[in-house]
């Protein structure tokens, strides 16, 4: 009896294991199908992950968008860029420094701020260029394709009116990319520009010269350098050190150019 009970117990266990395995396989299949349906329909229905809208012809300008972090070159060229402006407290300080040193830069402007402070730009952008940095510095990577386009289009028009020239470059806030951002950039015939090197103000509290030395040492040929002409008080350490940064890079043989000049010089990396 004991042996029979043992054999029966083993058979029951094996049978139940087989049923569980079969159920697990069916469950995995169902889960896989559910995930496929979700992946196929939810994010791709013009949402943030999608770089396509529906099944009709895509209205995407020239049909392509390039993303650039920097360029490959042996020439000592560097593109200085500033994000988030314009605002009265900081933007004139940056423009004054650039004017004194005859340095061009690229300003990625927030459309709402450009519309509110157009006088900060008029007559001061002769050697500079402007790019689009969204309407209100919200995360475009969270928007669907229609909303991302509407945001950038609204900002585009405000920047063109305030600066007197339409932007041809875009830099999404925080560098956040998504399919909807790419789609909107393509529709507007933008070149999408990120950066190679970012200023590190938080590492040098109260030490503009130290911050400038760090940036000068880290720049390589073809660098796109990110700074800000808006922000927290700690960021002023970079702007106060901007003259040392400029003279330090020139001492290393660097020439300052706009982003478009840099992009026209060679191929992107």
UniProtKB/TrEMBL annotation:
Keywords: Signal
Gene Ontology terms describing biological process: carbohydrate metabolic process
Gene3D superfamilies linked to this entry: Glycoside hydrolase/deacetylase
Entry keyword annotation includes Phosphoprotein: no
Domain NodB homology: 76-257
Signal sequence residues: 1-27
GO molecular function: hydrolase activity, acting on carbon-nitrogen (but not peptide) bonds
Protein name: Peptidoglycan/xylan/chitin deacetylase, PgdA/CDA1 family
Taxonomic source organism: Micromonospora inositola
């Amino acid at each position: 009896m004991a042996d029979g009970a043992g054999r029966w117990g083993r058979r029951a266990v094996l049978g139940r294991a087989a049923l569980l395995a079969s159920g697990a396989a069916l469950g995995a299949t169902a889960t896989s199908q559910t995930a496929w349906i979700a992946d196929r329909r939810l994010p791709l229905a013009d949402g943030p992950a999608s770089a396509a809208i529906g099944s009709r012809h895509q209205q995407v300008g020239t049909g392509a968008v390039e993303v650039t972090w920097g360029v490959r070159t042996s020439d000592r060229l560097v593109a200085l860029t500033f994000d988030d402006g314009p605002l009265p407290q900081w933007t004139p300080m940056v423009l004054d420094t650039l004017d004194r040193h005859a340095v061009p830069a690229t300003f990625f402007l927030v459309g709402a701020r450009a519309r509110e402070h157009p006088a900060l730009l008029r007559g001061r952008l002769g050697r500079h260029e402007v790019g689009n940095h969204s309407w209100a510095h919200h995360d475009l990577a969270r928007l669907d394709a229609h909303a991302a386009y509407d945001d950038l289009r609204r900002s585009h028009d405000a920047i063109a009116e305030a600066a007197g020239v339409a932007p041809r470059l875009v830099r999404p806030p925080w560098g956040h990319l998504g399919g909807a951002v790419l789609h909107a950039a393509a529709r507007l015939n933008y070149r999408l520009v990120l950066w190679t090197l970012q200023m590190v103000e938080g590492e040098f509290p109260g030490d503009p010269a130290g911050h400038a030395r760090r940036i000068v040492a880290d720049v390589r040929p073809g660098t796109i350098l990110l700074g800000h002409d808006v922000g927290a008080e700690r960021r002023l350490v970079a702007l106060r050190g901007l003259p040392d940064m400029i003279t330090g890079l020139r001492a290393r043989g660097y020439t300052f150019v706009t982003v478009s000049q840099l992009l026209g010089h060679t191929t992107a990396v």
